[in-house]
Structures are given as structure tokens and as C-alpha cells.
Design goal:
Blueprint lengths: L1 H22 L2 H4 L22 H12 L5 E6 L2 E6 L2 H10 L27 H11 L5 H26 L3 E4 H18 L12 H11 L5 H9 L1 H6 L7 H21 L6 H10 L6 H32 L1 H18 L4 H4 L3 H13 L6 E4 L4 E2 L6 E2 L4 E4 L1 H5 L18 H4 L20 H16 L2 E4 L24 E6 L1
Parallel strand pairs: 2-7
Antiparallel strand pairs: 1-2, 3-9, 4-7, 5-6, 8-9
């Protein structure tokens, strides 16, 4: 009996080895350059203690001369990394119909707030995107601007009191309070008062989403690679408390506005208007899209402003030029108006250069909708395979940007922009599935940065981390342990 069990065990082990070997030979069979995998993690063993930003850049630098794309493995699952700019443009723009989905994990049944515009797929995404696009026009941005500017005024008063004669501050926390209040007002019509109450519910649950995600990095990637299995096993994305909070806030606010005919000219009102037009738009869908507007808007913009202030503190010459740009525009337009915020070209250049160095998402993801033969090759990307586009690595490639690690806003002067390939700069994605809130994000960053630069000078101090490290816990590019700078009144 023991001999039979031993033979069975050896046979099973042998079959497992053959299976693993065959899985890890996928790219070799396709004659595609690939990263050598290691069982059982494939190429992502270090994900538990290193940021995906650092890992993807390391892979890119190792493989960027191997051809227009290369293969990798997440556990036993093959994925393809595309590095050629023309091929990237083809995938996300020209042949978009082959790659319409991000492949982001969501679970509409168990976790309805996860089924938002960023994540959903297929015809449901197309319909929702078409309905929501008009809510992010320049006209709608102008309509929301007074609300945004009012938060900027509160932020200015807070800074005057907090900084006083000058002090060292945790910039990320300050900027997160600002963007929390902006999005709370512009998305939900709720005064969050994060400056006076940093432990308020919106700030608390906003931090929970990004600083304490429900699932560890390896499981988040696993759900991306095996979404159907994740849904069958009922895995959720969001923490229960955060999900319940946002759903209840939206439900109660919508109910109050509908009963009392309240129209605040904010994002939630625009969603309610869609519902009034007879569109089949459920409360779960309203809550999910109000939630993603909050989550994406407060985190990405606060990180962008934090990194921008960090670079301006390290480069006083750029800081002075940005400050003068802000002051000139405020004087020209009589204060912080919508027109003033749109007339700060050098500040925009600083924001874009920051987005180049520190894009919120280091990797752009797509999923193949149907088999796709890569132009100019015999390689076929099979249906449902994940595609990675290493944004951060491309942004820091010396072939596209000289001295790529150096902060240089002049790279984004309109004349310079016209000379570069569109896919050398993808912080908001590109094509039909680009970031729908790009205009709002830029506007929010302009107001936050202009508020500080117009009244304060920033500098580094002994507490400023150099070089910066990125958090391995977050799925967006966040500074590990925060970021401290000295702020002094002008």
C-alpha cells in the first residue's frame, strides 16, 4: 500500500512539474522575448515588499532593447508587456475595439461600489461613458469652479494659521485634506471640513481606501489575472466600513435633493439629472460613480500636488518661475477665477512634468477582447490576456527625455510637446478609455498649487526624504512614509 501511495505521489509531482514547465514555456513557444519566471510567483515574487512602480521599471530597463514587446508571468499566467510607442498607440487608439477593457477586478453583486466607470466593461461601459462624458466638459468645469475656489480660500486660511512664521509640515496630509474637501463639495455637495477636522468621516475612509486596502498586493494582482474565479469566490475590493459609508452618504443625499428639489451644480446633481432623463441609472450606479470620482479625484490630485511641491522645493528657480506665473495670472484676472486658473501655462508645465516623473498609475492595463495578431509579427495575443503598458518606465526613458530623472518643466512647453510621440506621456491614458476626469484633476491641482505658491515659499529640510521611496502597500504611486517640507510665508 505504501509503495502504491509513493508511486501515486511521485506521479502527481511529475505531472505538476510537466504542467508548470509547459505553462512557463508559453512565451518560448511563441518566440517572444520574456522574463525568466520562478515557481510559483512567475516574475512578481518581490511584490510583497516592493512597489509595482519599481518592479515594472526594473523589468523595462532589462527588456527595452529586446523588441517592441516582451512576455512575463504572474504566477503561472502569461501576460504581455508592450514597450513600442507606435504599437501602444495602435492598441489604445487605432485598434481599441480589440482592447476596450482595463481588466480591473470588480464584483458588482457582492461589492456594488466597485462596479464604476473605471472598472466596468463591454457595452455597459460604453453606455455609461457616453452618458457621463458631457459632465466633464469645460462648461461643467466652469460651473463647478466657484465651489472649488471656496475650498481654496479655506485652504489658504488654514495654511496661514498652521504655518504661522514658518514650519515643517507633512505635505501629503495637507494636500489630501484640500482634495478631500474639494471632492466632497464637488461630488457630494458636503462640507467635509478636513482642515478643522482631519479625523472626519470622508478623510478617514479616504485614507482607508488607499493606505489600508482590503487585500494585499499579491491578491490584488491575482484578482486582476483571475477575475472570474475571484467573483465566484466572492472576493471584494473595498473595506466594508468604507463601502457602507459612501453608499449611505449618496443614498441619503440623493433622497434629500430629490425630495427638496435641491440642485447644487455639482457632480452628484449631474448624476441625478441623468436619472431624471429616464435613463436606467440605479442607486448603486450613482453611488459607485460618485465614489470613484471621490476616490480617484482626491488621491491622484493630492499626490500630484505633493510631488510637484517636492520638486519645486528642490529647484527654487522653477519655484520662482511658477510663482510669478501664478501671481501674474491672479493680477490679470482679478483673483482666483476660472479664467485665471486656465491661464497659468508654466504651472501647467510643472504639473505635467510632475505627472511624467510620478504618474499615479505606473502601469496602464488592457485586456484583449478577442484574438489579436500584432502588426508586423506572427505573434497572436489570445482573448482575455492582460497587457501591461509601463507608463512610468516610458516616462523615464532617456530615449524620449534627456536626463529623464531631472525635473524640467520646459519639456512641456507647447513647442517641445509638438515634437514628441503622443505615447511618451500617458498619465491619463489615451484613446476612448482615457481618464474622463482629466480636466477636473488639472483644475484642482492648479488651484491647490496656486494657493500655496502665491503666499508661501517651500524648501527642503533634514526631514525631507531623499531619494524618495514608494509605498509597496498602495496600488498608486505614493511616497512611503509621507513627505515633509518646510513652508515659510512670503
Amino acid at each position: 500500500m505504501s509503495v502504491a501511495l509513493l508511486i501515486l505521489a511521485l506521479t502527481l509531482i511529475l505531472l505538476l512539474l510537466i504542467y508548470v514547465k509547459r505553462k512557463f514555456a508559453y512565451w518560448a513557444r511563441q518566440n517572444v522575448p520574456y522574463l525568466t519566471p520562478r515557481f510559483p510567483y512567475g516574475n512578481f515574487k518581490e511584490l510583497s515588499h516592493r512597489s509595482i512602480a519599481d518592479i515594472s521599471r526594473e523589468f523595462y530597463n532589462q527588456m527595452k532593447d529586446a523588441g517592441p514587446f516582451y512576455g512575463a508571468y504572474f504566477f503561472l499566467q502569461p501576460l504581455i508587456v508592450v514597450t513600442d510607442l507606435d504599437l501602444i498607440k495602435t492598441i489604445i487608439i487605432k485598434d481599441f475595439n480589440h482592447f476596450p477593457d482595463r481588466g480591473v477586478y470588480f464584483n458588482e453583486r457582492e461589492d456594488p461600489l466597485s462596479a464604476h466607470l473605471f472598472a466596468i466593461e463591454g457595452n455597459k461601459w460604453r453606455s455609461l461613458r457616453q452618458r457621463l462624458t458631457p459632465t466633464f466638459t469645460s462648461g461643467k468645469m466652469k460651473m463647478m469652479f466657484p465651489t472649488l475656489a471656496a475650498v481654496g480660500d479655506n485652504f489658504s486660511e488654514f495654511l496661514v494659521q498652521e504655518v504661522n512664521g514658518g514650519s515643517i509640515v507633512e505635505v501629503k496630509e495637507f494636500m489630501a485634506r484640500f482634495t478631500t474637501d474639494v471632492i466632497g463639495s464637488c461630488a457630494f455637495g458636503i462640507e467635509c471640513n478636513s482642515f478643522k477636522d482631519p479625523q472626519g468621516q470622508f478623510r478617514k475612509f479616504g485614507k482607508t481606501i488607499f493606505d489600508k486596502p482590503r487585500n494585499p498586493p499579491w491578491l490584488r494582482l491575482g484578482l486582476l489575472m483571475f477575475p472570474d474565479l475571484g467573483r465566484r469566490l466572492r472576493f471584494k475590493v473595498l473595506n466594508e466600513d468604507a463601502s457602507d459609508f459612501f453608499h449611505n452618504v449618496v443614498k441619503s443625499t440623493v433622497g434629500y435633493r430629490e425630495e427638496n428639489s435641491v440642485d447644487r451644480k455639482d457632480f452628484l446633481s449631474l448624476l441625478i439629472d441623468l436619472k431624471k432623463t429616464g435613463v436606467d441609472f440605479s442607486m448603486d450606479e450613482i453611488a459607485a460613480n460618485a465614489f470613484i470620482f471621490f476616490a480617484a479625484g482626491f488621491e491622484t490630485s493630492s499626490s500630484n500636488q505633493t510631488y510637484c511641491l517636492y520638486e519645486l522645493a528642490r529647484h527654487p528657480e522653477h519655484q520662482e518661475k511658477a510663482r510669478q506665473c501664478v501671481l501674474d495670472s491672479l493680477q490679470k484676472h482679478g483673483g482666483m477665477t476660472y479664467e485665471a486658473a486656465c491661464d497659468m501655462q508654466y504651472l501647467d508645465q510643472c504639473i505635467n512634468e510632475t505627472l511624467r516623473l510620478y504618474p499615479s498609475l505606473p502601469i496602464l492595463e488592457r485586456k484583449t477582447f478577442k484574438d489579436y495578431k500584432i502588426p508586423g509579427s506572427d505573434v497572436v495575443i489570445p482573448k482575455d490576456m492582460k497587457i501591461h503598458i509601463p507608463i512610468m518606465a516610458i516616462h523615464r526613458d532617456e530615449r524620449y527625455y534627456s536626463d529623464p530623472e531631472v525635473f524640467n518643466p520646459d519639456r512641456f512647453h507647447p513647442e517641445e510637446l509638438a515634437t514628441r510621440h503622443v505615447c511618451t506621456f500617458l498619465p491619463f491614458g489615451e484613446g476612448p478609455r482615457n481618464c474622463i476626469g482629466m480636466r477636473f484633476g488639472m483644475m484642482q491641482s492648479r488651484v491647490g498649487l496656486a494657493t500655496i505658491l502665491s503666499k508661501f515659499r517651500l524648501s527642503t529640510c533634514s526631514n525631507t526624504a531623499t531619494p524618495l521611496e514608494y509605498s509597496s502597500d498602495s496600488f498608486v504611486v505614493q511616497p512611503k512614509g509621507g513627505l515633509r517640507l518646510r513652508i515659510d510665508p512670503l
